[in-house]
Every structure is written in structure tokens, then in C-alpha cells.
Specification:
By secondary structure, this protein is an alpha/beta fold. The chain is built from ten helices and 13 strands.
Length: 278
């Protein structure tokens, strides 16, 4: 199958010059996690901007200073499996599609799962591809604590657990962005330098003001924000069936449960790509 069969041909994008608020507004309105960046007034691709870029650079306002410039691209006649291989190798979830350097579309790992893998008959069980290191947090934890857990694992979601250590919900990167804002705080640093010698010596004090931006989360708890109705797969669920569930529910990650209902793994769209790259 070729990329032109599954590519989104009317991609949502942002242009430079531009600022983070404009990019966030587009992401929230269009419900996307990343945007190709074009030069203003043209279709010339100059970068890619993701939610992770915005989260990781709260001090920067200009898109040009936040976006990734070393962009992996695809063309319409590229094979889907080849592009899936690039996504796995570079650990990315979206690739702009270009023609003569101009943006003509975008293909994501979810597109490949929903429009290609779900139509195949791949009988491999998801346990062959799932990850077993799963970020979890107590569902009564503050959002900032849950966010740090997710960042520590370098993943896009965190699983909420109740008092019985049972899965009670899931939060994604989108949930954290929707419950946060960038705030600026100024800290004051004093340093005193004294002179030694006679009675006419004096001390001088220098004051340094440091302004720093950071993400501030709402006062809600994990259980107030997490998605409670969580779709799951079991270890023996077929890859194609899991892909169908992702497509039907428009989700990119599914917790995997064991025989006794215990949480044993997480399967993501990018993980399913490995089933067609052998």
C-alpha cells in the first residue's frame, strides 16, 4: 500500500512567524497533537511542532525557536511499511508528506493503524508488541505529580490506579495541556561582597532578578480529569483487532490486561507498526 492511499490531504498546519498561543489554539480546536510548520504565505515546509515541544519549552514564545527543524518527510508514492519503519526508527508519530518541498499532506502512526493495519489480517497477539513498563499514578494525586510521572517514563499517557491498586482511568498528554497554563515567576537572588581592611570598608549587595516560565496545573486531582471508561485489550488480542478498536474509538494507546484482569502492558499505535515492519 502507498502513502497516497491513507494520507490526510488537507493538513492542519501553522506558519512562522507565529507564537505558541496560536499553535496551542489550533491544536485544541483541531484536536491534533502536532503540526507541520510552513513559511508564512507559502506551502514550504520548514519544521514540525508537537505538544511535547510546547511542554518542554515553556520559556519560548516563538514557534521558530520551539519547532523541530530536522524533519523526516514522506512522498505520495512511498510504501506504507517504509514510512512505518521510519516512525519506529526515529520514535515519531507523524510525518509530513511533501512534493518538491511543499507540504501536501500528513501521515500519522494512527493513520497507518486505522486505515492499513485494521484492514489486514494480522493474527499476532498484542503481547508480542506491547510495552511492559507502564507509568501509573494514584487517582487522588495532584495533576503536577501525575505529569512528572508521565515525563519520567517519556510516554504520552499515564494510568490512574485507585485505592485497591486497580486501573481507574487514563490521562493523556492532551488532558494535561487542557488543564494547564504557562505562568511566569520572578525569583530574586542576592549576593553580598564585603571588603576587608579598615573601618571605612563597606559591603556591596547585588540583586539578580530571574524570570522563568513554567507549566501550572489546575487544582484538580487525577480522578477529576482522567477518562474513566478505558478501552482495554488482553494479551491474546490480535493486532488487527486491536487496530480496529483504536480506529473505532479514535485512540492511540490501549492498556493491556492479563488473565486475572491485572494491568500487564500498554499497546500504542507506534507499537502496532512493528507488525508490518519485519
Amino acid at each position: 500500500m502507498l502513502i497516497k492511499k491513507i494520507v490526510s490531504k488537507n493538513p492542519v498546519f501553522v506558519s512562522v512567524p507565529g507564537n505558541r498561543e496560536k499553535a496551542l489554539e489550533i491544536m485544541r480546536k483541531q484536536k491534533v497533537s502536532g503540526l507541520p510548520v510552513t513559511k508564512e504565505g507559502t506551502n514550504k515546509l520548514v519544521g514540525v511542532l508537537t505538544r511535547s515541544d510546547l511542554i518542554g519549552n515553556p520559556d519560548e514564545e516563538q514557534i521558530a525557536l520551539i519547532m523541530s527543524r530536522d524533519v523526516i518527510t514522506a512522498e505520495l508514492d512511498d510504501d506504507v511499511a517504509d514510512i512505518a519503519s521510519k516512525m519506529i526508527e526515529k520514535d515519531i508519530r507523524r510525518i509530513p508528506v511533501v512534493k518538491d518541498g511543499d507540504l501536501v499532506g500528513v501521515v500519522t502512526s494512527f493513520d497507518i493503524v486505522a486505515l492499513a493495519i485494521s484492514e489486514m489480517d494480522i493474527k499476532d497477539p498484542v503481547e508480542d508488541y506491547m510495552i511492559e513498563t507502564i507509568p501509573t499514578t494514584w487517582d487522588q494525586s495532584p495533576l503536577n505529580v501525575a505529569f512528572e510521572v508521565m515525563r519520567f517514563f517519556d510516554l504520552k499517557c499515564v494510568i490512574a490506579l485507585n485505592n485497591d491498586v486497580k486501573m481507574s482511568g487514563i490521562l493523556t498528554e492532551t488532558d494535561f495541556i487542557n488543564e494547564s497554563e504557562v505562568v511566569s515567576e520572578t525569583s530574586v537572588h542576592n549576593s553580598t561582597v564585603g571588603t576587608e581592611g579598615d573601618k571605612w570598608s563597606w559591603d556591596s549587595t547585588s540583586v539578580l532578578y530571574v524570570e522563568k516560565n513554567h507549566l501550572k496545573f489546575s487544582d484538580k486531582l487525577v480522578r477529576d480529569v482522567s477518562t474513566i471508561k478505558v478501552s482495554t485489550a488482553n494479551t491474546k488480542t490480535k493486532v488487527s483487532d486491536c487496530a480496529k478498536k483504536m480506529r473505532a474509538e479514535n485512540i492511540e494507546q490501549i492498556p493491556v490486561i492479563g488473565i486475572e484482569g491485572e494491568l500487564v502492558g500498554l499497546i500504542r499505535a507506534n507499537d502496532l507498526l512493528k507488525a508490518i515492519v519485519k
